[in-house]
Design a protein that fits this description.
Blueprint (H helix, E strand, L loop, with lengths): L2 H12 L5 H7 L4 H11 L7 E11 L5 E10 L4 E7 L7 H13 L14 E7 L10 E4 L14 E7 L8 H9 L10 H12 L1 H33 L4 H8 L3 H8 L5
Parallel strand pairs: 3-4, 4-6
Antiparallel strand pairs: 1-2, 2-3, 5-6
Helix pairs in contact: 1-7, 6-7, 7-8, 8-9
């Protein structure tokens, strides 16, 4: 086995569907995979996805942007946002609220009636049971405190407990598969076949390594920016000295000093 093949295989052994980078690659141009997950989570077998995208950016009027892991639309016009979050802090209630509101901003054109808003689902798949009740799913819809009636605004938020792995339950089997590192051990054939391609073929592992390398570069840049910010905050060195010390351009240091780089 060559050094490149060994590197690819090591990367394949580390990644699972619960990993953001792998998820982006796995569900890119894979409507059938998204369709399978939605049918499982929503306990249906008739949902048909007509379009899906990964890593699509939404920007608010205040310029606060979000990047959706998966956006999908079904045959009836309902819209779905699926997010996979390993860190608990990435799946807070207010983040789910913001994702839901951002979906709404894209659903109406000028002068269209509010009744034309599509039904939406924001689905967070979390590695841990962040709500702490041991349930496979947590459904959140708006209700009236006084009467307990639903508002019926057709905006839904669902949390999927990634720690739930009861093999007698479809969610438990799905979450087990999300954490698998071997296609042969997966319950769902729909997921296993594509998973096998990325994990166990030369071409698939090559594609996967490119995604990992891209993320590594992004992380290195983020760390570089953080180091520059810390040194600027200390006010002990000039911009030129910081650039020389960190081996970066003076232009980058000045941009960060002027808050032009997030």
């Amino acid at each position: 086995m060559t050094a490149e093949q060994e590197k690819n295989r090591h990367t394949a052994e580390q990644l699972r569907l619960i990993d953001d980078d792998f998820l982006r690659l796995y569900f890119n141009d894979n409507k059938e995979g998204v369709e399978f997950i939605l049918n499982t989570i929503l306990e249906r077998n008739d949902l048909k996805v007509i379009q899906s995208e990964t890593q699509c950016e939404y920007r608010s009027l205040s310029e606060r942007s979000i990047t959706l892991d998966i956006f999908a639309e079904d045959l009836s016009g309902k819209k779905y946002n699926i997010e996979v979050q390993r860190a608990d802090l990435g799946a807070t209630a207010k983040r789910a609220r913001f994702h839901s509101s951002m979906l709404d901003t894209k659903l109406l054109k000028k002068n269209e009636k509010f009744d034309m808003l599509a039904e939406t689902y924001v689905i967070f798949i979390t590695e841990n049971d962040i709500h702490g009740h041991g349930l496979p799913l947590y459904h959140y819809d708006r209700r009236c405190r006084e009467t307990n009636d639903y508002l019926n605004d057709e905006a839904h938020i669902i949390y999927v407990n990634g720690a739930y792995q009861d093999s007698s339950n479809s969610i438990g089997r799905l979450m087990y598969d999300f954490k698998c590192v071997c296609a042969d051990e997966m319950y769902n054939q729909e997921l296993a076949e594509r998973f096998c391609y990325f994990k166990e073929t030369e071409g698939g592992m090559g594609e996967m390594c490119k995604i990992v390398e891209e993320r590594a570069k992004e992380y290195a840049k983020e760390q570089q920016i953080e180091n520059i910010k810390r040194m600027l905050d200390s006010k002990k060195l000039s911009h030129t000295e910081i650039a020389d010390f960190l081996n970066v351009s003076i232009k980058l240091v000045e941009e960060i000093a002027n808050d032009n780089v997030a």
